[in-house]
Fold each of these.
Amino acid sequence: MYTIKEFFSTLQGEGTHAGRVAVFCRFTGCNLWSGREVDRENAQCRFCDTDFVGTDGNLGGKYQTAAELADIIEKEWLSMNPSESHRYVVFTGGEPLLQLDQDLISALHQKSFEIGVETNGTIKPPNGIDWLCVSPKDGTELLCLVADEIKYVVPQFHGEIDKKAIIQRLKRFENMNFKNFYLQPMDGPHRDLHLEFAIAICKERPKWRLSIQQHKYINLP
Ligand SMILES: C[S@@+](CC[C@H](N)C(=O)[O-])C[C@H]1O[C@@H](n2cnc3c(N)ncnc32)[C@H](O)[C@@H]1O
Ligand SMILES: Nc1nc2[nH]cc(C(=O)O)c2c(=O)[nH]1
Ligand code: SF4
Ligand SMILES: [Mg+2]
């Protein structure tokens, strides 16, 4: 069974595929935060910008089979664009690797979808993902050591202005097997400050490129 918060179609706003049309499937639940505000300050991940609790979003619910989910994703794609090609689905959450399995990957591949995944990197991914984005969270154990992109959020709490310490942390990732390296400014009340901070680090460590969450600037979901 799969528990889904919502489906929506939009442009991917982050990372290498920013600007690309995609159907997003957001799974309910995460292993690093309950999603409840009262638990945020003691969670392993405290800066989350997403509501992934429950099943109350567009077409959210509990689904028994991968085929049902694949049908919804295909319908969502066709409602936006009847074209047969360049089909793209992004599984996110919450933490998608708590639920994404081989059945669901096969069902989407059978419908000619490329499959993107956004993960916090603490769970080993199944085979067959076409684009894996790992976004490590400080203080957690990283188990996804190979990925198409790493997207590290900076800073991970407001007021963490020790650039040297952050760069030290980045150096560890630089030696890992990622194809693309991104810094994403932490959104929240101090987003613009964090944007400047991320740009400053990119200037010092040119291996890293800036990923702004462009959907938020153009009012897309
Ligand atoms: C909501 S998470 C869901 C997928 C997965 N749990 C993860 O953390 O990668 C999707 C992406 O948004 C990023 N993100 C979450 N909160 C953010 C914030 N306040 N500012 C910038 N990026 C954020 C995450 O780091 C991740 O790359
Ligand atoms: N447009 C858009 N792009 C995104 N890329 C990653 C997202 C996420 O929440 O995982 C996201 C999202 O929520 N919206
Ligand atoms: S790991 Fe991802 S979904 Fe979970 S709380 Fe952090 S950003 Fe949100
Ligand atoms: Mg988002």
Note: Residues 49 and 187 are 7 Å apart (CA to CA).
Amino acid sequence: MIQLENLQKSFGPHKVLAGVDLTVPQGRSMVIIGGSGSGKSVLLKCILGLETPDGGRILVDGQDATKGDRDAFLARFGMLFQGAALFDSLPVWQNVAFRLLRGALKRPKAEAREIAIEKLRRVGLSPDVADKFPAELSGGMQKRVGLARAIAAEPQIIFFDEPTTGLDPIMAGVIDDLIREITAEMGATALTITHDMGSVRAIADEVAMLHGGKIRWTGPVAELDASGDPYVEQFITGSSTGPIAALR
Ligand SMILES: Nc1ncnc2c1ncn2[C@@H]1O[C@H](COP(=O)(O)OP(=O)(O)OP(=O)(O)O)[C@@H](O)[C@H]1O
């Protein structure tokens, strides 16, 4: 379970997070939506310790994420970055097994490779992909590799940062379905940020909308269309008119 309590973060005079309260229950999939610049990435970075919050608390399974052993804390997370963010100089299997080849989760090389091949299979890629380099793969295949990497160490918590950006609608749907299936079968707690309403509906159990530095609305995905919140309505319909100022 992830609990954010009154989380705050400013950059100079610019208050990006102005007291975010949010709970992601164990084994549930939460998707955070919000306009460009609303602070979704900053929120994720605060949880991962890549940004230091100015105030508030981040609790993961009841423990303060900013205290204690960082490596042990991060070992519980998997992450699929925007654009897959693979290492071009490493073959696919070493990308997938990256965290199994070094640090706290290190395994013998042959075992790490076996796990990589098994995870590649889980995301629909055959073993012959293991020895290719990322540049030899299509964008959709690279996303699958990124997903295989995110799950390689069997994390309890997985973050997905814009998982379908740059993919065609069919491939986006395939990746959404894989994310949904895999997180459910792992029983993982998932936190996703996306602009893609198709992804929201495919991946989310719960949705939270970040606006004005706070959680504007949160609820089950089934209630999204009847939220009654004008900000949520404008966002999900993609309207240029409404309470959210749209720059032209
Ligand atoms: N390191 C930083 N220094 C200064 N300002 C920053 C920094 N990181 C983020 N910001 C600012 O914080 C605000 C929120 O950024 P963030 O990247 O979290 O938005 P976002 O909701 O993820 O947007 P998008 O959907 O466009 O990716 C932006 O105005 C951004 O310029």
Note: The domain at 1-76+155-248 is CATH 3.40.50.300 (Rossmann fold).
Amino acid sequence: MSEVVLELNEVAIYQKDNLVLSEVNLTINKGEFVYLIGKTGSGKSSFMKTLYGDLPLTKGEGKIVDYDLKTLKEKDIPYLRRKLGIVFQDFKLLPDRSINDNLLFVLKATGWKEKPKMTAKINEVLDKVGMKTKGFKFPHELSGGEQQRVAIARALLNDPELILADEPTGNLDPQTSVEVMKVLQEINKSGRTILMATHDYALLLKYPSKTLKCDGSKVFEVVQKSV
Ligand SMILES: Nc1ncnc2c1ncn2[C@@H]1O[C@H](COP(=O)(O)OP(=O)(O)OP(=O)(O)O)[C@@H](O)[C@H]1O
């Protein structure tokens, strides 16, 4: 039987008092790769923010990796985010420290204590994204694509049950976007579940997968031909 990692029933998403999306119903099962597409301002980021607890869920029911979004408390949010790997368009690496130290910072902040285990984990995730030899570098010494691969490695540190990627290729040129996408595809093949918001239709065509579209304040699944 498939394992559900995300389930939304009749969810409405608001920014302040403005209704952004309504009657959202969807299920994502373990192992799926799902795109979230839609025009600028259609609600993709608001949707993602609701899933990682940045916007409260006030209407409808939502369950994500065993957390109930409706009853989620402020103090639960860091624990929810430990079960999610979040990747942003702008990488969000700390500029004042090396890649290894960026990853170490996250491990320490999420309760890791033993140095050998931390070092092993950092090597493991950097290896997964093809960046094992670059851990000593500072973010500004890396290309945009390399920085995003490090950001993906960071998202993998706590073995997330679901990876939320909000426009992960939004700042990258087409060729680099494909390279980052290959990394996400490999991670998905190794069993991780990924929800990726994007407006990059070329990627969708190159790597077809289940696609949800935000349009007219609704979210619905689309068949590839009609995106
Ligand atoms: N912090 C905010 N306060 C109020 N309204 C907001 C806020 N952030 C976004 N909105 C509004 O919510 C709606 C959805 O925006 P959202 O950023 O979710 O869209 P998007 O599909 O992610 O767009 P983009 O592709 O440009 O990032 C828009 O009308 C936007 O103006």
Note: Residues 4-226 form a domain with the Rossmann fold fold (CATH 3.40.50.300).
